[in-house]
Amino acid sequence: MAEHIIYLLGPFQVPGLGQERHVRVYAPNEAAGGAPVLFMFDGQNIFHDAPSFSGGWYVHHAVKQLAEQGLPAPVIVGIDHGGSSRLDELSPFTSGDSAGRADDLLAWVKAELAPRIAQEFKVRTDPAGTAVGGSSMGGLAALYAHFRHPDLFGAALCMSPSFWFAEGKIFDYVSAQPKPWTSRIYIDAGAREDGGSVVADAERMVRHLRERGWDERSLCWIADKDGNHSEHDWRKRAPSALQFLFTGTPGPRPEAPESSPTPAGEGAPPPA
């Protein structure tokens, strides 16, 4: 039997977006009362190397480590991007490069995908037990989703977020929204990303959130002095980020293994 089984759902047609896509789900051992759940963008990248453009995150390994430590181990729901439409569907804002269709993607997650995950996997459905995450444009989309749908997403994982996109409209958007009644936000960036500008933008957002009352248990900020804008670096920081999302305490950042074989359970159908 495979050590890790990634269930493959779909393909799905998302209203308003052209390309069909699959959803990949990793479910650790069932937890009493249901496991927390983390919806992640760019699902091709978060598990194995094969479907990713530049290597996978192996998030399922990090989840397994949490379970072995007796910590909350989330079900991971990886939403594949739509290829050429990725920039449109992960941007909340129109710009010269994007039609800004993130609301279409999030509306589908809320109306169709989240209820299906709750039906087929034993997960929590309360905002405190439901998070959204991603890197780069996915990190931008994750923070937006938390403030746009706080009734669904009570936590956000934002790795190397593209807060600069669309002339930094995310700053005005967040400042205009009320603080979600339950909120936990993880933000990180690497010092080697775009000459330090990604760190600077992230620090600006962190300062704003701190001023509005986010504390050490509700906001984690990691500046990686050696970090680049790469799957390898997001993979390295993922275990600490996952631990923080559902405990309020970040874990250590173990070095990620160089590679791992695709398990026999890749692409399995969902449980009955």
Automatic annotation (TrEMBL):
Signal peptide: none
Any Pfam family hit: Esterase
Region listing for Disordered, in residue ranges: 245-272
Origin species: Hyalangium minutum
Listed name of the protein: Putative alpha-dextrin endo-1, 6-alpha-glucosidase
UniProt feature, compositional bias: Low complexity: 261-272
